Amino acid sequence: EKARPQSEDRVSGAAKADIRTGVLGLDPRTHLASFLAVGISAMLVTGLLETVLLQVVSAVYLAGNGRQRLAIKACASFAVVCGLSFLPLSGLYGVLFVSVLHMVPPFTVGCAFFSLSPSAIMCALDRWRFPQGVIVGICMVFRFASVLSFEIRSIVRGIRMRGIFPRALDAIRHPALTYECVYTPLVMRSLRLSSELAASAELRGIEIGRGRTSVYHVGFSARDAVCALVVTAASAAIYAMGVIA
To answer: Minimal CA–CA distance to 105: which of 45, 38, 29, 33?
Structure first.
């Protein structure tokens, strides 16, 4: 038997990697369980140290699923909000920053869903008998979240090419014009995207009454159990540490 070329081995390896969901190959429901574990702990803990440890666990989980840059950005956002929460602000502003600070860890874990295919998410949630409207809404949110940032960058590049705001300071000086030049094109692009997504969903059988299938791996394995147990145990230990202290 002749040895296969290295190019074929690379192709077969890439195909195997594409069949798995995310980098660790975790089931979407594992991400959901981790999100709930971190979210409950974030609501129960009160100390700053416990919240910081939760953010570290969340960032490690997100980085382990192939979103290292997003994990770094989430930690940077956490640091900024943490610094703002120490400012001597009156009224509800201080409470607002503290509340946002506790929301960052579960948000960081939830960003792991962006490492998955919407097809895998829909198939996994369908196995848990989620309502069709909820499944479609969740997938639309992930689709728009990944596209809107690209659309906003395109709008900003178009504005700069037309010389409307030669300097960044000009956009601050004319907030009404900035709002009009960014918001109106964004609304029009969102309407066009929603029409295209609706047509694509119809062609892909979004309203099918039978069970959904996916080319991506959907199912629990030992890897899912280990990750879910580690995140849950870490969240519980951080909460217990705050109670004992």
So the answer is: 38
pLDDT for 32-42, tens place per residue? 889 999 999 99
Phi and psi angles of residue 204, each rounded to the nearest 5 degrees, phi first: -90, 10
Angle, CA 14 vertex, CA 112 and CA 23 arms, to 5° = 20
Q: What is the pLDDT of residue 57?
A: 93
Closest by alpha carbon to 233, among 34, 51, 55, 45?
Answer: 34
Distance CA 9, CA 111 (A): 32
pTM comes to 0.65
